[in-house]
Predict the structure.
Amino acid sequence: MIAGRAPSMPNWVAMLCGWWLGVALWGYFVAFHEMARALVGGFGSPGTSVAFAIAGSIVGALPLLALLPVALLPRWWFGRRVPERRKADKRCPDCGYPDSGFPCPECGGDGTIAELELFARRPIVWLLVGAAVMFVLAVAWAEFRIRQDESRFRSDVDQRVAAGLREAFTRPRAGWGSFATLQYDPAGGFDAPPPFDHPRIPGWRSTERPAP
Ligand SMILES: [Zn+2]
């Protein structure tokens, strides 16, 4: 939003918008990727699970494109609305200085409202590039958190086994994937099955009821 900024937009507004947008995208992408990983399953972060989850997260990011006009709202407000109001108030459209002839003694503006194309290419490209960078950083952070959670589970199980655990042990994943579980079974080792598996999906096995 900093690129292609309307002249009447204060610096702090541009920075605040950029900051909030970045934080919101970050939170959305981290949450989505942690849920995608939990849905895909797989203990120990196998490459295919990570790849499937990233593909899912990319698909999950696409609906955000519908919010692009919302992200351009400050541009409209400060590029059209504010200058028009100031002009109606007989003030400088660019800086709000009381009308004392043009060029404006405060900012040098000529008193006309600069033509501003709302859906200009540059701010949209900048938004998309920024969102892509946030996506990559958020997925890396989510992967880091998932791996930490799995290694915590592994050392927890190791401790319990050392203390004499002989039966299966299960706990929910940490973070946004807490609807799925990490599992340890003395016979089968570590596992993190997809939580909503179905009998018609190849490779399905019931984790709740033994087969008749
Ligand atoms: Zn001015």
Summary: Residues 121-162 form the longest helix (42 residues). The radius of gyration is 26 Å. Helices lie at 11-40, 47-61, 68-71, 73-88, 121-162. The CA atoms of residues 168 and 187 lie 9 Å apart.
